[in-house]
């Protein structure tokens, strides 16, 4: 892990931005063909692609009560309890995000407002295979539930044995999800976006997936809404000399094990800490089961930036706009005002990133690739939409009639002015 | 304007959805080339494209105080006052949308929260030429101002004489915008996204434009955020037999004059009203200055749907999810619960659509193309972003340490578990 000394005014060139994987031309064509097939042949096409890509024939992809019961039998009772506790925490946090409709009346009798409505139907994609993430179920489903979405559909690809992850099934059942399909890849995205005989279409699709899922989501965007397409995960640690090197190193590595493309970055004014962390990362790396992934990530995207002061370190953080930011300083709260751009901020040594990844409450779907400059974590408002309400009274209308017509004509829109003036004829009705 | 009788259960096939104009391959290549040129040659490239596309050489595109002063001299004082009144209304409405940061503390001493921050810098594109829309300035700038965006930059293409619209300049000045550039097209979008020697880059670009602007916004998306790319405008009028045919017709035509692709739709259970509106539209059409546009729009995309009841008419509206919805019935407010999908709802005959287009307060940037099922009007929250805050106390950490580590291992993420367990060593520090 290289140490770079950052001089005043050099921060501008730092960036976490990397070009997103937009797939090869061949992958894009495969995805387009799959979507066309599913639009044309529906359930039959889904069955055929599941056989082809997941290696298993699934006659009816709808998950049965029996399958769920078996998942409960197999999963350790302690894990079920942990999932239940996580659900409670995540729900409590997201309930604070709920927004309501509002209206106000004016002296002239007119009423203006904003109506907030949940989406009708949402599809959540949960990756399958070796990486079964029940936390993806919680983080995508709970905000939709809190928003009041009536129909939440879960799709996840079956293993070669036709089965799903026990933890995923239990997490979904604990949230009351009853419509789950054993299907994945671009075919699942197409079925959710356009519907089949057996599956009603949804209005929005969220959740992570491989490159085919990401390309399919891009392709159906517009037909339905989608969540952001995430880049590789990132952590930045803002630390002063009070941070403990072995903790910083462990936190950097917890990011690095996700993906060889993940970025783990330490920003500190302390040269001593920088050197200690450098040594600790190397030492801890050797003992990790996902060592090869983490080592690659650290080598390619791991960085230690040493700045002239802690304030300059904050500048670096704002420049990077990291997905996750840990603040490991003597008084971490004191930086909340200065830090402008980050997906999630973890304050102090008792808030290592895994605390927030699936347990504390906030969402783990966060803006990557420097987009925390303008994007937000997934939340309840992503599953609600707003409608403006305008109810002008006769008095308000009469007061402003000429102004509105004049404005319309200023913009060259005569029929707009006449729509206003059409109301003049009322008396002679 | 055709009348279609809708039977029970036939609503499913109705749709406002049309494929968005994604441009020709040639247009996409032109836009890519322009963006590359501006990234490479900056201000020089912008000057060159302005000469080429707008037919005028602009040495320094920054609008001067002198140009603004001249615009004030030329615009009628009454129009300046109308713009000021509109600004007051729009600001009052949007101030209600402002959301704040929140935090909560738990018994165990941990703190969770959500920090709301305005974007740093926003660019607003305002079309030039014959269609100078000061309302675009108001509707894009005011939400950003209310959100607290510090730097708002306006770009708009110069006319062949090198000048801008007086109304656009005055509207911007009234809002306190001091950074305005005479540049348009893909070159303006590229300059905003990537910056030049004279123009600092922004974080988000909003505002309408022609196909080149739309393609350029798509191209720079990811580098910066963009607002939605709007389809043709739409109005649906939900009316019963109490509606006045000449008012309904005038309102339908005010939409139709925007664009030959615009959709104007009446949904009513009243056959009598349907026939009267049909005749009125024809009669009023002939007297409009933008008659040819409106006539084309009515012919291609105008529809009158007659349903078996008013409730079925509401079903049709929800199926269409129109950008604008006027409710012209005896008790319009009574439908607010039933109507689920619309960008903006105009209640009663004193709220024709032009009332809301630039004057009443709500935003006129609304979801088109049926996307009101999942999208919202442009608003203050589009110029704010959120950051999750997690501050676990030692007590909270000790309580949940094992659960968090166990969850990490369930997901196969050993380094996550070790990041938690690294904190155990504290005592022996």
UniProtKB/TrEMBL annotation, chains A, B:
UniProt-annotated binding residues for substrate: 233, 255, 258, 324, 357, 411, 416
The keyword NAD appears for this protein: yes
UniProt pathway: Amino-acid biosynthesis; L-histidine biosynthesis; L-histidine from 5-phospho-alpha-D-ribose 1-diphosphate: step 9/9
An annotated GO BP: L-histidine biosynthetic process
Domain of life: Bacteria
NCBIfam families for the chain: hisD
The protein's role, per its UniProt record: Catalyzes the sequential NAD-dependent oxidations of L-histidinol to L-histidinaldehyde and then to L-histidine.
Protein's UniProt name: Histidinol dehydrogenase
Species whose genome carries this gene: Bacillus zhangzhouensis
Gene label: hisD
């Amino acid at each position: 892990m290289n140490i770079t000394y950052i001089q005043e005014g050099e921060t501008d060139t730092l960036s976490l931005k990397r070009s997103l994987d937009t797939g090869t031309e061949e992958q894009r064509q495969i995805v387009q063909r799959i979507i066309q097939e599913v639009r044309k042949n529906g359930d039959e096409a889904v069955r055929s692609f599941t056989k082809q890509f997941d290696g298993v024939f699934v006659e009816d992809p709808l998950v049965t009560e029996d399958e769920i019961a078996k998942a409960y039998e197999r999963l350790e009772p302690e894990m079920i309890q942990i999932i239940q506790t996580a659900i409670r925490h995540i729900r409590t946090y997201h309930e604070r995000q709920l927004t309501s409709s509002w209206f106000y009346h004016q002296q002239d009798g007119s009423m203006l407002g904003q109506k907030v409505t949940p989406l009708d139907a949402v599809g959540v994609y949960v990756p399958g295979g070796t990486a079964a993430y029940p936390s993806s179920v919680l983080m995508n489903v709970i905000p939709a539930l809190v928003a009041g979405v009536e129909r939440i559909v879960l799709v996840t690809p079956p293993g070669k044995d036709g089965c799903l992850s026990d933890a995923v099934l239990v997490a979904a059942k604990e949230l009351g999800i009853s419509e789950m399909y054993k299907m994945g890849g671009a075919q699942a995205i197409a079925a959710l976006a356009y519907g089949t005989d057996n599956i009603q279409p949804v209005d929005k699709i969220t959740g992570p997936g491989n490159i085919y899922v990401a390309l399919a989501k891009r392709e159906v965007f517009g037909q339905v809404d989608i969540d952001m397409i995430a880049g590789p995960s990132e952590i930045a640690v803002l630390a002063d000399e009070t941070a403990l090197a072995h903790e910083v190193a462990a936190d950097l590595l917890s990011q690095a094990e996700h993906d060889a493309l993940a970025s783990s970055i330490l920003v500190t004014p302390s040269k001593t800490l920088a050197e200690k962390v450098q040594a600790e990362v190397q030492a801890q790396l050797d003992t990790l089961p996902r060592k090869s992934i983490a080592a690659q990530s650290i080598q390619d995207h791991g960085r230690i930036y040493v700045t002239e002061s802690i304030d300059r370190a904050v500048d670096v953080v704002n420049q990077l706009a990291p997905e996750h930011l840990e603040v490991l300083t003597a008084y971490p709260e004191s930086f909340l005002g200065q830090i402008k751009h980050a997906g999630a901020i973890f304050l102090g040594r008792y808030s290592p990133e895994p605390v927030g990844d699936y347990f504390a409450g906030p969402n783990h779907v966060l803006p990557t690739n420097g987009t925390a400059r303008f994007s937000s974590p997934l939340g309840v408002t992503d599953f609600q939409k707003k409608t403006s309400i305008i109810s002008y009274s006769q008095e308000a209308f009469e007061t402003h009639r000429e102004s509105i017509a004049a404005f319309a004509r200023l913009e060259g829109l005569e029929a707009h002015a006449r729509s206003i003036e059409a109301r003049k004829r009322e008396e002679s009705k």
